[in-house]
């Protein structure tokens, strides 16, 4: 694995950790944290799959995020 590829994955992980995910079932106001972040590489780019478990109602969630590159500021 190249250093650039590893840095790219780390940037994606940091972006996911910066996002706020709330449970849609129990209306828990405490943000969930991803327990697993996995990556899939496709011709169209890298997809990140984040897995969450609500600490209150124990519902499980998976969020698939496609990395489209840097967003212009």
Topology:
Blueprint: H1 3-18, E1 36-42, E2 45-53, E3 60-67
Antiparallel strand pairs: 1-2, 2-3
Q: Would you give an account of this structure?
A:
- The model has no long low-confidence stretch (mean pLDDT 80).
- With 73 residues, the protein is of the alpha+beta class.
- The protein is 22% helix and 33% strand.
- Strands 1-2-3 form a three-stranded antiparallel sheet, with helices on one face.
- It has a single domain (3-67), classed as SH3 type barrels (Roll), CATH 2.30.30.
- The protein has one helix spanning 3-18; strands at 36-42, 45-53, 60-67.
- β2 and β3 form a beta hairpin.
Concise summary:
By secondary structure, the protein is α+β, with helices and mostly antiparallel strands. The protein has one helix at residues 3-18, and strands at residues 36-42, 45-53, 60-67.
Strand content: 25-35%
**Low-confidence segments:** none
Tell me the count of domains: 1
**Estimated helix fraction:** 10-25%
Number of strands: 3
What is the overall silhouette? elongated
The third-level CATH topology is: SH3 type barrels
What does the main sheet amount to? Answer: 3 strands, antiparallel
Radius of gyration: 14 Å
Number of helices: 1
Distance between the termini: 29 Å
The CATH class name reads Mainly Beta
Which CATH-level-2 architecture? Roll
Averaged pLDDT: 80
Widest sheet, order of strands? 1-2-3
């Amino acid at each position: 694995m190249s250093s650039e590829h590893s840095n790219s994955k780390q940037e994606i992980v940091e972006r996911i950790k910066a996002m706020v995910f709330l449970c849609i079932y129990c209306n828990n106001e405490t943000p969930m944290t991803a327990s697993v972040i996995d990556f899939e590489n496709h011709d169209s780019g890298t997809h990140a799959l984040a897995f969450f478990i609500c600490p209150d109602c124990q519902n499980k969630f998976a969020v698939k995020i496609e990395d489209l590159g840097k967003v212009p500021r």
